Amino acid sequence: MNFTNPFLDRDGDKLREECGVFGVIGAKDAAAMTALGLHALQHRGQEAVGMTSFDGSEFYSHRGIGHVAQVFNSAERLAELPGAMASGHVRYSTTGGSGLRNIQPLFADLASGGFSIAHNGNISNAMHLKRDLVQKGAIFQSTSDTEVIIHLVATSRYPTLLDRFVDALRMVEGAYSLICMTSEGMIACRDPLGIRPLVMGRIGDAIVFASESVALDVVGAELIRQIEPGELVQVDHKGIISSHRPFGNFNARPCIFEHVYFSRPDSVLDGQSVYGVRKQIGVELAKESLADADLVIPVPDSGVPAAIGYAQQSGIPFELGIIRSHYVGRTFIQPSDGARHADVKRKHNANRALVEGKRIVLIDDSIVRGTTSMKIVQMMRDAGAAEVHMRVASPPTEHSCFYGVDTPERSKLLAARMDIQAMAEFIHADSLAFVSIDGLYRAVGEAGRNKGCAQYCDACFTGDYPTRLTDLAERDTPDLLTLPINRVA
Amino acid sequence: MNFTNPFLDRDGDKLREECGVFGVIGAKDAAAMTALGLHALQHRGQEAVGMTSFDGSEFYSHRGIGHVAQVFNSAERLAELPGAMASGHVRYSTTGGSGLRNIQPLFADLASGGFSIAHNGNISNAMHLKRDLVQKGAIFQSTSDTEVIIHLVATSRYPTLLDRFVDALRMVEGAYSLICMTSEGMIACRDPLGIRPLVMGRIGDAIVFASESVALDVVGAELIRQIEPGELVQVDHKGIISSHRPFGNFNARPCIFEHVYFSRPDSVLDGQSVYGVRKQIGVELAKESLADADLVIPVPDSGVPAAIGYAQQSGIPFELGIIRSHYVGRTFIQPSDGARHADVKRKHNANRALVEGKRIVLIDDSIVRGTTSMKIVQMMRDAGAAEVHMRVASPPTEHSCFYGVDTPERSKLLAARMDIQAMAEFIHADSLAFVSIDGLYRAVGEAGRNKGCAQYCDACFTGDYPTRLTDLAERDTPDLLTLPINRVA
Amino acid sequence: MNFTNPFLDRDGDKLREECGVFGVIGAKDAAAMTALGLHALQHRGQEAVGMTSFDGSEFYSHRGIGHVAQVFNSAERLAELPGAMASGHVRYSTTGGSGLRNIQPLFADLASGGFSIAHNGNISNAMHLKRDLVQKGAIFQSTSDTEVIIHLVATSRYPTLLDRFVDALRMVEGAYSLICMTSEGMIACRDPLGIRPLVMGRIGDAIVFASESVALDVVGAELIRQIEPGELVQVDHKGIISSHRPFGNFNARPCIFEHVYFSRPDSVLDGQSVYGVRKQIGVELAKESLADADLVIPVPDSGVPAAIGYAQQSGIPFELGIIRSHYVGRTFIQPSDGARHADVKRKHNANRALVEGKRIVLIDDSIVRGTTSMKIVQMMRDAGAAEVHMRVASPPTEHSCFYGVDTPERSKLLAARMDIQAMAEFIHADSLAFVSIDGLYRAVGEAGRNKGCAQYCDACFTGDYPTRLTDLAERDTPDLLTLPINRVA
Amino acid sequence: MNFTNPFLDRDGDKLREECGVFGVIGAKDAAAMTALGLHALQHRGQEAVGMTSFDGSEFYSHRGIGHVAQVFNSAERLAELPGAMASGHVRYSTTGGSGLRNIQPLFADLASGGFSIAHNGNISNAMHLKRDLVQKGAIFQSTSDTEVIIHLVATSRYPTLLDRFVDALRMVEGAYSLICMTSEGMIACRDPLGIRPLVMGRIGDAIVFASESVALDVVGAELIRQIEPGELVQVDHKGIISSHRPFGNFNARPCIFEHVYFSRPDSVLDGQSVYGVRKQIGVELAKESLADADLVIPVPDSGVPAAIGYAQQSGIPFELGIIRSHYVGRTFIQPSDGARHADVKRKHNANRALVEGKRIVLIDDSIVRGTTSMKIVQMMRDAGAAEVHMRVASPPTEHSCFYGVDTPERSKLLAARMDIQAMAEFIHADSLAFVSIDGLYRAVGEAGRNKGCAQYCDACFTGDYPTRLTDLAERDTPDLLTLPINRVA
Q1: I need a labelling partner for B2 at 20 to 30 A (CA). Which of C401, D51, D130, D241 fits?
Q2: pLDDT value, residue A404
Q3: Which chains have 3+ CB pairs within 8 A of A?
């Protein structure tokens, strides 16, 4: 009935980041700042949002289905979240009202006091740990992997909360960037590989943590630095900051796809401008796979920076050959005798007057299932394009992600099923090329990929997973704990 | 409570088209096609939408506050609008639930049967006509100027409905592109000056009318031609089309601002690609007012085509120096100690890594109040831009529109209050230039503006209004009929 | 989705009053008082409610589907209805959201100024008048018969508004108790036969009008007197009251069913206590049709007063043998293998411990279709009653009402289809008796019914309609104006 | 905003039962039957409702704020609760949307499988137990005392679920009638004192449990017997019933106030008709405290049975001197210059024509704060009553309840603050009398109250609490666990 996700494009043939986190301690209006920061991270999770605040004695929470600006839509709402410390979370993957209990930050009253946690990432041995905890009498209130951490903290035998927290994290494998709150202050933490991003900033006397630097920009904070892989930063209510490295030394493996698609182009990630990297991927792509064409046309909006790079490198003019509608709704009734591909046309429409008779290079950031690419190539042909050459600003996506990105099963990934020639035929392009994995590493400033010891997590391209995948390995065992998410409201 | 207009940017310092219309006759699923067509015209009116259909014996209507995809969000809803003929309307200017009665198409049971009307434009003697009708006993159900036409038809003494309709239109002055329905068929009509656009297309055996050609594209119809200024086209249920010219010969004066901003870039208007015209304005602007700079940066999204033209003409690279968020909500609570201009940053954020230390040319389509321009220039400076030169793809907007565009009072138009030098200082730009009126006419393919007999309505730039403005002239007389719109729910 | 009418019992086999009206002039908080007064009249119309107020210069309105306490549920809502004069209306008969435009008070901007009207009753020549008005160019915005009066006022040739109003009413036939507002003040008026009730009261300097005296009680006003049949009372903003008799002399025929069922027992009607009359009907019924039984059991709640009278006259003890639930919802999903008649049991449940083995007299106010009576008799038998005698506190309901009461078609009235013996068998009662028409007249204080010149409208019992029924007579003629109510939203 | 509780009378100066439970196993449409059964128990809890079902492999739940007929308002909703076993719960005490997590049945995935619990009563050592559980690492998801039982089951060391459940209950003190579900079947259980009621019935092959027998009537089931105090009944999916007595022998102490007010008059409780007991209280009251008066008038609706008994015993006629509105909303805006006590008048209005000049005996079931009694006495005087004698069908309510009834603090109970003479003056009655405690015991069929060993829990009248009140005793100790219910949403 209500149209909670007007921006969500369910047909979107894209990998989707599953979460964004934001936290602030020491700010007069922490809740309003958190709402604004989450709004800047909305692209990381558009289905649900939650916030928890602490006013020195009590914790307060509010969660809802929908966008930040829908759920936190009034001064009254924010006034219900008082205090100088607040943290929040945006997410995908929650369907229907029944999922309210899965919306983060999760909160529990532990013996030591209140504890909240907001998590970006995915724990790859969550089911294994949950089974053991339930045997010991733990009762789970959500189906979120994140809740495992809370129960591990609650049942740890260590004396201090920080010790119990580290004890819990040592049992966990996978990807996590966490923002936690206790009555003592805020803890921000990144897994030893640093798979998901997390940055720290400052505004006045307040300390801010966020998934991406753009959230610092928008609230007016300055970027201090990123939280290092394996680092745990504690901030108390006096503003005293302490850094811990409880996991020893690891080679970090941050997600390279953040540079390709997930992060906003105006973010700075691992010290590099995302926009700059994307343009540079376009440059590499033009060097590797130049097409003889009249126009460079981005698939909007994610293909735009690479297309600008490709155009500048190649000298072929950059033009808007596809116009994107800003009003893409989730469901729309199709007329049965309407146009072919009306669903795509609602979102993207050919700039026919421009395209007609021209040889074009289409630039997109990635190909997942290939269905959208096929429709867009056809749209260009229907608009009269003489030739359509597709260039993709990432290597072929052949493997699923288990670190907090919503990927289809491997069998549905076009690149897992076909070679490039077959893919070109499938999408009906005159030619198709992907940037090489080394080209991608060059664009992020490396000389190339270190085979023995890759600098990034690039498992979706290479299948080289940097952690064990315990739950996946155990999945064949039937297990009462692998309940469907919507089993009980 | 509900967040009906997530896309609406109330701070948007833009002129706004007030309406879009769509109609189809002879299609199996007329209502679904109309919903899709209105969706493609959503940029012309984002606050409310209505649709009326006819199934051969009865008329059916549904109206609602919100976007097309919100109001017509289910197959059940569309099933309540049966029949092979349907028409619809999107609009701005309706605030709150109380305005349901003003949502078009308006409908009345006349003695001759049902009559519906959807109107894009504004009748400049509506108050004058309404006062006279009320004296004779007419009871108005809306505060819309459009209702005047229905009452004129209802009380006309001519025998046939077509004669009564023409009789009514002859009393009306101003801008109107109309799509009407009777039990006999559909009537599309454009005022003698053709101020607002209206096109005709075909899909299979069905005839389609729409404000812009993009709506034909999206439903899969082919463009036949535009309805000519002063033309009235009738289509009956057998598909027989007849054209009438009831108003004699006029020099047409279509709105030139449709080319500058209102229409979608993928529409074709007066035989010209809107995208092409906008790029050409950028070219003219670069010829007239070249800036010595490192980067050409569009104010997204409306400044992009002119910026591409400016970049191509000048050789200065086109870059995305401002990133636009897709998640702009209507209301948002500001943290009091947040950044300066957080409201603008929610929508637009500087690509700091790109801009820092650079001399930039900002390209926008127009300047209305100047408040947004001022904030964006400041955002570029805060991001480290060395120089900021503003170039505007239209002449200074000095006059209000009375033909269906929502303009602020003249006293709030920056160009009505200042000369260009003062404006540059107000927005804090290093330099400011507008395209000349002749440059604009060149971009639409003319040699220049014909002074004695302008080819377009350009009153917002020149003050040269092509019709009388009766209500405006009579406004000093106190009048019980000039009731506030929301007086009675 | 929302459960707007939790109290409404759609299965209720009852005739239903269709409207209640309330108005006040000269009160500081007229809107709050009107809400409270309408709340006391809620039993006269539970589906929709509207209110219009006047603050000395503007009129304000709000309407909604649901109960008074749902629609006027906040101080903010009432603050939107400022001024010292207000009137309101509760009604049945509006289905779905589409009926908003039919919710009264209706309002129009006439040449002489604003005019609002709230109507209890039914105009029996409305279609005839509407056809004529539409021929002359009138455009109707509702499908309510009441709107005819507004158009007649708008098009009357008389000079003053009062003359135009009387001119309009002279063309109208049927039942109407009206509360109107103009910028000059309030007009209350009752049709020449006085079919529907209307009373006048005073609180401080304010004058109050209402359908029933209970509304005066609840707002704290004292009853002055009823508006006489054919009387028109005007009150201006200074509190000056003038009474007019524009229709000459008639024999009044107020509705006798108001005493039987419609009015609240705590109202005083035609100078008589409704509760007292109902008890007296029970006394007459016991005199006419004594049953040899152990217990007198009312069908709650409407049968209670007559049952008390019957018990007092007969000496048989009054007992609650049927318990009524207060939580009767509109829709409820039946278990397929649940009890027989679970739908009735949700509302009424047998007090089995009391009834078992007893001979009982059931007292109900009326029998309409007989379906509920049949179920209740069966419920008593299932609970172990030895004998079930039904006594009814009104004569057999054989005819439809055309004066503002929702009656089924005549063919569905049990008494129109069967004699009393057959009715007894249909409802499976051991005996069945109705009070006689003269017994009913005795209960309201008459010696009996005057055959030539009945003192009340009792057409539902006798078929003796006191007015012409023009629309009914013309109904065979197909007519484009008899549109279904929900044709256009 | 929404008006979820139109029936709820917050001003109601009554003690309130806090919960009702219903369960069925072995029925084809268990969810629909449960909804119907809960609807019949709606008077036991009007603020929230929940249901859980089991289809042989999975558990399903739905909960909501509002009435049964609002929350389970569609076939689709019930279809989401498949299976032949279902149980549900209605409750008071949940304020705002934040309380969703406290709505029962509570559900947990234990190591042994799913476990649901619905509870009527109150655990008087819940805080004490909770503190201990949290120390051991338990994480509570609700603030309900009932959740303690689940954690005790989850952490018990006994091997079978039944043993773990009994182990848990042995640690619990207070009042509980429970309906639990596991994958093996249904368990119904009543605390050793049998404070709250619970009955068992049969319909076809299905077994039904409910708080009151009226719920069996309404779903068409026959009453088998009550669950005995201290009894635990297990029913498996084959319909095999086993009874256990795990707590040894106790003297039962069922709540006597169920007879006075909580239960529906058409229920049978402890083998006695509730209606019959209430009438007999009226008889005892007339014997003990006859008043010299003209009319016996019940305070509707709860005073009606005792008033009938009083009238029959005394020979004074029973009359409806107070008319109750069925449309009592939660919030209502008062006109400032309206009548005195308009809030009471919305609910109760004097039948002035009856009362005027008469000496009346008012019969009410109980006096709590006395505020409503005061207003009703005044209402009778304002309506012209010559004398007002109040008779109360229970002894003075001097003590709070800690067993599942919502009572004000002791200091707000009128009878805890004043003697009877002072109470008579406070409510402004000409005389006031309460039934004696022995009279009350006689009405339930005893010879009188056994002083040493009372047959019922009558602590609200006598202060003789049948269990320890551990949490109350420990309340002085500050405790982080006594969190306000709405602390975290």
Answers
A1: D51
A2: 87
A3: B, D
Q: Tell me the β-bridge partners of D53.
A: D60, D86
The verdict on A112 touching D (C-beta cutoff 8 Å) is no
Interface of B with A in 142-181 (CB under 8 A): none
* ipTM for this model: 0.89
Residue A170 sits in the same domain as residue A50: yes
Known catalytic membership, residue A19: yes
Question: Which pLDDT does position D5 carry in this prediction?
Answer: 29
- The answer, for C110 touching chain B at a CB cutoff of 8 Å, is yes
Q: How far is CA A265 from CA A210, A269, A467, C340, D449, in A?
A: 16, 10, 28, 67, 81
What pTM was computed for the model?
Answer: 0.85
Distance CA B109, CA C134 (A): 8
Same domain, D234 and D333: no
CATH of the domain at D182: 3.60.20.10
Tell me, what DSSP letter sits at residue C129?
A: H
CA–CA dist D345, C218 (Å, integer): 6
A472 vs A264 pLDDT, higher one: A264
CA–CA separation, B80 vs C373, rounded Å?
38
Mean pLDDT of the A19-45 span? 95
CATH number at residue C296: 3.40.50.2020
Across the interface, which of A1, A46, A276 has its CB nearest the CB of B353? A276
At residue C335 the predicted structure's pLDDT band, cuts being 50, 70 and 90, is: low
Is B294 labelled a binding residue?
no
Asked if residue D145 belongs to a known ligand binding site, the reply is no
Q: How many domains, chain B?
A: 2
> Is B258 domain-assigned?
no
Beta bridge partners of D51: D62, D88
All residues at 6 or more sequence positions from A68 whose CB lies less than 8 Å from its CB, including other chains: A35, A38, A39, A42, A49, A90, B327, B329
Q: What is the pLDDT of residues A289-326, one digit of tens each?
A: 999 999 999 999 899 999 999 999 999 999 999 998 87
Which residues partner with C456 through β-bridges? none
Instruction: For residue B59, list chain C residues with Cβ-Cβ distance below 8 A.
Output: 487-488
Answer yes or no: do C332 and D39 touch at CB < 8 A: yes
Same domain, D241 and D182: yes
pLDDT 10s digits, D445-462? 999 999 889 999 999 999
Q: Hey, what amino acid is at C199?
A: V
The sign of the torsion formed by the CA atoms of A435, A441, A442, A443 equals positive
Task: Using DSSP bridges, classify how beta strands B232-236 and D113-123 pair: parallel, antiparallel or unpaired.
Answer: unpaired
- Say how many C-beta atoms besides its own lie within 10 A of residue D158's C-beta: 13
In one letter, which amino acid is D368?
V
Judge whether A100 and D100 are in contact, CB under 8 Å: yes
Give residue B344's pLDDT: 63
Question: Biggest alpha carbon distance in chain C?
Answer: 73
Of A52, A109, A139, the CB nearest to D134: A109
Question: How far from C272 is each of C210, C259, C266, C278, C365, CA to CA, in Å?
Answer: 16, 9, 10, 10, 18
Query: Does any CB of chain B come closer than 8 Å to the CB of residue A275?
Result: yes
**Which residue reads 């532990």 in tokens?**
A110
pLDDT per position as a tens digit, C281-307: 999 999 999 999 999 999 998 999 999
Those residues whose C-beta lies under 8 Å from the C-beta of residue C140, and which sit 6 or more positions away, are B108, B109, C130, C133, C134, C147, C151
The residue count for chain C:
489
- Do B279 and B305 meet the contact criterion of CB atoms below 8 Å apart? yes
Q: Which two tokens stand for residue B117?
A: 């009307």
Q: Which of B424, B443, B462 delimits the end of a domain? A: B443
Which residue is closest to B300 within chain A, CA to CA?
Answer: A301
Q: Which domain holds residue D329?
A: 275-443
Q: Tell whether B224 and B330 lie within a shared domain.
A: no
Q: Where are the alpha helices (DSSP H) in D27-160?
A: 30-40, 68-71, 75-79, 126-135, 147-155
Q: Phi first, then psi: what are they for A292, rounded to 5°?
A: -90, 100
Distance from CA of A29 to the nearest CA of D (A): 19
